[in-house]
Write a structure and sequence with these properties.
This protein is an alpha+beta fold and 268 residues long. 36% of the residues lie in helices and 26% in strands. A 7-stranded mixed sheet has the order 3-5-6-7-8-9-10, sandwiched between helices. A 5-stranded mixed sheet has the order 12-11-13-16-14, with helices on both faces. Strands 1-2 form a two-stranded antiparallel ribbon. A hairpin with a 5-residue loop joins strand 1 and strand 2. It is globular and about 50 Å long.
């Protein structure tokens, strides 16, 4: 690991941990409102974004900084620095506002536009999941060892609802076969796949800030995110109204079950 990468990983870890107390204190208490795109936002989103980036900028003023809530809505930022940070300060905002701990802080470090390390704070388990390619992945203190279990009726997968009829038809081989969970957080679905708590997941409305940290985690366990409508990385520009980047991720058996229907849905 290069010294530059090591310093950034350490700083990112500290910046996340410094916000956990505030994140948990505001859970279910913070006021919220609805944005024009019908997504929810809270004061905590803005506060956490500002605090994490302020702390990182003290160490790395030359880096680029991208946040769903911290960047101007009408400006497109070109990513020109070698290193960039992509943050979703509260993933699962509806849960967070309601006091349900199925939510997270998701922070990714990018090098030349590609995620090389990810941090996802899992509020439900009060655990920091972190890692990246060549660095391994840690679920708290436990180093993750990737496994490839068979895909059976006992397997658990994560999906988001509602979805349109075409996608419902495409995922039917999964929804009519195994256990389905809808947690309300793309970052948690993906992180749970990386650490082996879910066998697979697919998402159709997630944005780049929802997937950036998990992209690094999945690469860190030798798996990957399979994008259905084009890989958003390397990321060259950023603005909070970037379109969705639909994806699937999971064990080989899960992907073999789901891939034909989803690829057909996106090809049509």
């Amino acid at each position: 690991m290069s010294t530059h990468l090591k310093h950034r990983i350490n700083a990112g870890r500290v910046a996340i941990k410094n916000q956990i107390g505030f994140f948990r204190d505001q859970l279910g208490r913070v006021p919220s409102e609805w944005k024009e795109d019908n997504t929810r936002v809270t004061f905590a989103d803005f506060a956490i974004s500002e605090k994490i980036f302020r702390e990182l900028r003290e160490h790395f003023p030359e880096d680029d900084y991208c946040s769903e809530e911290g960047n101007p809505q009408d400006e497109v930022a070109g990513l020109t620095a070698r290193n960039a940070w992509v943050l979703d300060p509260v993933d699962g905002t509806n849960n967070y506002a309601a006091g349900l701990p199925l939510c997270s802080i998701s922070l990714a470090l990018l090098k030349d536009g590609v995620p090389v390390y990810g941090f996802i704070y899992d509020a439900l388990r009060d655990t920091l999941i972190q890692g990246g390619p060549g660095e391994g992945v840690y679920d708290g203190c436990r180093k993750v060892v990737r496994q490839e279990p068979p895909f059976t009726e006992h397997s658990m997968v994560g999906l988001h609802f509602p979805m349109d009829e075409k996608l419902l038809s495409a995922v039917r081989p999964v929804t009519e076969f195994c256990r389905v969970r809808s947690l309300g957080s793309s970052a948690l679905h993906l992180a749970y796949v990386a650490v082996g708590l879910l066998d697979g997941t697919a998402g159709f409305k997630g944005r780049v800030w929802d997937v950036a940290a998990a992209h690094a985690l999945l690469a860190g366990v030798g798996s990957g995110l399979h994008y259905l409508n084009g890989n958003p990385f390397p990321l060259r520009t950023f603005h909070p109204r970037l379109g969705p980047c639909p994806y699937m991720a999971g064990t080989s058996a899960f992907l073999e079950t789901l891939a034909p229907g989803l690829r057909g849905a996106y090809a049509s």
